[in-house]
Amino acid sequence: MNIAVLAIGDELLSGDQPDTNTAAIARLLGSHALAVREAACVGDREEEIADALNRLATSHHAVIVTGGLGPTADDRTARGAAKALGVPLSLDPAALGQIRQRFQKWGRPMHPRDEKQALLPARAAVLANPRGVAPGFQLRHPKGADLFFLPGVPDEMLAMLAESVLPVLLAKDPTRPPTAGQRLTLFGLAEPEVETRLDQAALPEGVTVAFTVEFPLVRVKLTATGPQAQVLVDRAEVAARRALDDYLVALGDQTLAEAAARSLTAAGLTVALAESCTGGLIAKLLTDQPGSSVFLERGAVTYANRAKTGWLKVPAAVLARAGAVSSECAQAMAEGIRRTAGTDLGLAVTGIAGPDGGTAEKPVGTVYLALASAVDTRVERFRFTGDRSQVRLHSACTALDWLRRAAIAQLAGQGSAPAAP
Amino acid sequence: MNIAVLAIGDELLSGDQPDTNTAAIARLLGSHALAVREAACVGDREEEIADALNRLATSHHAVIVTGGLGPTADDRTARGAAKALGVPLSLDPAALGQIRQRFQKWGRPMHPRDEKQALLPARAAVLANPRGVAPGFQLRHPKGADLFFLPGVPDEMLAMLAESVLPVLLAKDPTRPPTAGQRLTLFGLAEPEVETRLDQAALPEGVTVAFTVEFPLVRVKLTATGPQAQVLVDRAEVAARRALDDYLVALGDQTLAEAAARSLTAAGLTVALAESCTGGLIAKLLTDQPGSSVFLERGAVTYANRAKTGWLKVPAAVLARAGAVSSECAQAMAEGIRRTAGTDLGLAVTGIAGPDGGTAEKPVGTVYLALASAVDTRVERFRFTGDRSQVRLHSACTALDWLRRAAIAQLAGQGSAPAAP
Question: So what's the ipTM on this one?
Answer without folding.
Answer: 0.81
